[in-house]
Structure formats: C-alpha cells, structure tokens
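Here is the promised in-class demo. Please do not try to memorize the tokens; focus on the logic of going from shape to residues.
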C-alpha cells in the first residue's frame, strides 16, 4: 500500500509532466522561436525587391542566405520546423492606407534539416561550418528525444499501474530528468545557432531580432520536467526506504 504523501507526489509529478509535454509539443509545432521586426517598404523599387524576395521564399528554396535575407526584410519568424514571413494580402506594399498583412509559412523538410551550414551562408566554397551544422541538427532532434522519453515514461507508468507496482517510479523519474535536460539543451543550441548566424549574416539597417513565445514555452517545459522528475525520484526512494524499515520492524 502506498503512503498518501507518495501518492500525492506522484499525482503532482504527473500533472507537471503533462503540462511540460503540452508546452514542448506546442513549441515544436509553432514558428515563433525567433522573430524579426523589419521597416516597411518606402517606394516602388523597394516594394518590387520585397515582392521578389517573397516569391523566392514561397518557392521553398532552402539556400540559407536566400531565406535568411527574406526573413530579415519581411518581418520573418522562424521555428524548428517552420519559417514564415509577413506580407500584404494584395500587391500594394507601401501605399496608404496600410495594407492588411498575412503570414505565409514554408516548412523545413526532413532532408533539409540535415543540409550542412557554411561559414559564409550561400557560399558553398567557403567550407562547412561544423558548429552551426550540428547545433542546427541538435535543435530539432533533441526535442523529439525529449518527447520520446516522456512517452516511454508514460507507457512504463501505465504498465506499473496495471501491475500495481511502485518499483518503476524511480526509472520514470530518471526519464523525466533526461527529458528536461534535452529540452534545455534544445534551447541552448537554438540560441547559440542564432547568435552564430547573426555573426556571419549582418542584419540590414533598421531590422531588430527578438526571442519569440515558442522558445519561452520550451524553456518553461524544461524545469517542469525536472520538478516532475524530482517528485517521482523522491517518492520512489522514500517509499523504498520506508518499505525496508517496515520489513525490518516486522522481522524484529
């Protein structure tokens, strides 16, 4: 029989785990990890250039310099699987009244996620930038690993409930700890990758970049997973120690 304290800890840990998983899933599926604020078009020549960038962007070209320049100039947002730009619904880019803006997105395909990065974006002769390449690959693989660990922990927990066993709780806590570390590593890889990108790609004048709410969701999910892990590990170890003390008392 499980003490009420341990049962309460498991319930709270399960709720925290569920919240963290929902937050991470939303973060992975949305594009607001990083966003740019760009100045509006100021003339027909500028509008024609922006329109050309939009057309190239929507063609799905994965050349890093091409889509990065478009994100810089068109209020772009980027996530782990999506890149989006903010464009007018009609052809009037700068005339008054201000045009109604809509978001157009293009997804990264799985093969594109493994395309190498170069020391000079767009210049394949500059040599592969191994640091940026592996940061990019880690930032989309690690959250999938994190979600996989949580799903595995949930399956083990369900089996433990059906078998009425408290033993797997410690292992489930360790899985949640690893999931939290993977999520934290995802955020770190993303931030490091964006910083390195901005060092080799100078932002146009008047363009500002900022972190988006999707990244903050992922950042919040990491400590939630770790708190769930702490509760589960505490419940498992305390229950085990209490069980051994009770057994020793009965033998004595």
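The designed amino acids, position by position:
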């Amino acid at each position: 029989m499980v003490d009420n304290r341990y049962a309460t800890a498991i319930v709270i840990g399960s709720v925290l785990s569920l919240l963290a998983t929902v937050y991470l899933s939303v973060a992975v599926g949305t594009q607001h990890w990083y966003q740019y604020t760009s100045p509006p078009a100021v003339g027909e020549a500028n509008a024609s250039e922006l329109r050309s960038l939009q057309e190239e962007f929507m063609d799905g070209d994965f050349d890093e310099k091409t889509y990065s320049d478009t994100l810089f100039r068109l209020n772009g947002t980027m996530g782990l699987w999506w890149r989006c730009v903010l464009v007018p619904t009609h052809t009037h880019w700068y005339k008054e009244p201000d045009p109604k803006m809509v978001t157009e997105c293009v997804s990264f395909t799985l093969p594109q996620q493994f395309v190498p990065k170069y020391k000079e974006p767009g210049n394949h002769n500059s040599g592969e930038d191994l640091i940026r390449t592996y940061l990019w690959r880690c930032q989309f693989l690690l959250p999938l690993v994190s979600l996989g660990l949580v799903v595995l922990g949930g399956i083990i927990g369900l089996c433990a409930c059906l078998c009425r066993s408290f033993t797997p709780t410690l292992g489930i806590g360790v899985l949640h700890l690893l999931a939290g570390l993977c999520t934290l590593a995802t955020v770190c890889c993303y931030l490091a990758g964006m910083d390195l990108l901005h060092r080799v790609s100078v932002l146009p004048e008047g363009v500002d970049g900022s972190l988006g709410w999707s990244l903050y969701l992922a950042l919040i999910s990491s400590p939630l997973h770790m708190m769930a892990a702490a509760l589960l590990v505490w419940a498992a170890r305390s229950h085990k120690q209490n069980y051994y003390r009770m057994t020793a008392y009965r033998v004595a």
